[in-house]
TrEMBL record:
Name recorded for this polypeptide: NUDIX hydrolase N-terminal domain-containing protein
Gene3D superfamilies for this protein: 6.10.250.1120, Nucleoside Triphosphate Pyrophosphohydrolase (3.90.79.10)
Matches recorded under PROSITE patterns: NUDIX
Taxonomic source organism: Acetobacter lambici
InterPro entries listed in its UniProt record: NUDIX_hydrolase-like_dom_sf, NUDIX_hydrolase_dom, UDP-X_N
A single GO molecular function term of this UniProt record: hydrolase activity
SUPFAM superfamilies hit by this protein: Nudix
């Protein structure tokens, strides 16, 4: 499923404006980049139904060279080859694999292990990188305002005690034929889950990307 053109255009114009405002010194150039940022906000507000002020405030908080945001997710399997999943409180308790934004001062794998422990109570050793995917090309719903790169790791259980958190309302292991239908589609897709099972079953598979 492709994203709407208005979102692609607004995202690209916002990135140009953000990067321009980072490096431009001439006041007239800065004024033009500010106009571009305002234009991107109008396009996104028109397409999304959000208020222009809300979008402008969101864009104004972005600084530095515009790059994709980094999300980490981890496929953790038990001795019965079942996948660890959690109900995501922020998405009406729909199911996903543990994960979230990568944290500053942590490597991507450290962030992934941290998310698993925070959301499930389990500790894991990150063993391999299975997928590096551009969110916009994966059919996730709803679409996001900013470009996001998703890293999918595999993790091996090392200990811990199952426990929910402020982010999760339930924790369960699922066999491949038991995966729930009410997935948090902004975070995970059935295809991505299938690929995690495939990488777990065949460690010779190379990392998938794009």
């Amino acid at each position: 499923m492709s994203e709407p053109e208005w979102l692609v255009w607004a995202r690209e114009v916002q990135a140009i404006a953000q990067t321009g405002l980072t490096f431009a010194k001439d006041p007239f150039d800065r004024e033009r980049y500010e106009m571009l940022r305002a234009l991107a906000a109008r396009v996104m507000a028109h397409g999304s139904g959000a208020s222009i002020q809300q979008i402008e405030n969101m864009f104004a908080r972005q600084a530095g060279y515009a790059t994709p945001k980094l999300e980490v997710r981890t496929g953790v399997f038990d001795a019965q080859n079942r996948l660890l999943m959690v109900r995501e409180v922020l998405d009406q308790n729909r199911w996903t694999v543990p994960g979230g934004w990568a944290d500053v001062n942590l490597t991507a794998s450290e962030s992934a292990a941290k998310e698993v422990q925070e959301e499930t109570g389990y500790t894991v050793r990150i063993s391999r990188l299975a997928m590096v995917l551009d969110r916009a090309r994966q059919g996730h719903e709803p679409p996001e305002a900013f470009s996001i790169t998703k890293l999918f790791f595999l993790g091996e259980l090392t200990g811990g005690t199952p426990a929910t958190s402020i982010e999760t309302s339930e924790i369960r292991f699922f066999a491949r034929n038991e995966i729930p239908h009410d997935l948090s589609t902004g975070r995970i897709s059935r295809h991505q889950i299938d690929r995690l099972f495939a990488h777990h079953a065949d460690l010779s598979l190379m990392t998938e990307f794009d």
